[in-house]
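Field reference: sequence -> structure
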Amino acid sequence: MKNNTSISSTLFMIFIINTTFFLLSLSSHYATATSCDSSVSHSRLRPSTSSNNYRPETTVHSSSDVPKNDIDLLEFPLNLEYLEAEFFLWGALGYGLDKIAPQLALGGQPPKGVKKARLDPFTRDIITQFAFQEVGHLRAIKEVVGGGFPRPLLDLSAKSFAKVMDSAFGFALVPPFDPYANELNYLLATYLVPYVGLTGYVGSSHLFKGDRSKKLAAGLLAVESAQDAVVRAYLYERAVQRVRPYGITVAEFTAKISQLRDKLGGDGLKDEGIVVPPAMGAEGKIAGNVIAGNDYSVAYRRTPQEILRIVYGGNGDEHVPGGFFPNGANGTIATSYLGS
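Structure field:
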């Protein structure tokens, strides 16, 4: 109970901080966006009164008022939103988009190897919230871009995550890392995902031209940032705890994962674990690093190429599919690198 109370207090503070960020990020677009809001019907999930399923309400909108450049930029993160939605839904509930909102998958192949994780009630509650947030993200992006693309093939098997962890440490963990074994392993695996997405939103933020696109990107960035902060706070509280049976601390796991993402991304320091040398902490004064940022505590940014190098794994090549996307990511930007 003591741990849950401590975590709840931390999450409340994170909620307040990210809500403030969200409101500030939208303020510059409010006047123009207001005229658009009257014609936009937001997608919602309502609990079914007759079953455990959720019934979607969807209004299809034309993307004719969204610049082609913006459509391409917004479609690209659909790949990561699909990944997060499936990983969180399956991890928390034991089923994914094909049961919750099959129309969003647009007939795409079901993910490989994903399954329900062994989570305590508190962690399962958090991941369930994340899961339905990601479903909302899929709806929001598809509404603005006019449909989007089918779910790409995703490899979310324990073997896929084990490869990432082995690459991070430079040797094979024994037994192989299993993200579904317990809540700590699952949160370490979750550490891999939202941060990559948020750096992508930061990286593309200055490229959007339309007001609807800017507003949506700001909102998506705010929630992805909040998710990452929740995960990092959860892990930070356990920083010195050793992950069984490896005898490696949680802080070391996050440091190695961040170093791997920097290596694969190939564009310098853009990633940090939950504990860093004090010189790398906020204002060069503190080792605690519950929220990652540069010398000015401003979020790092990544390009689509960098993101593809990370999620494809391997040698960090945006032209060679692999990792979580065996057949490659979808959309104009991602497919432009395939086969070139």
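Note: The beta strands are 44-47, 54-57, 242-243, 248-249.
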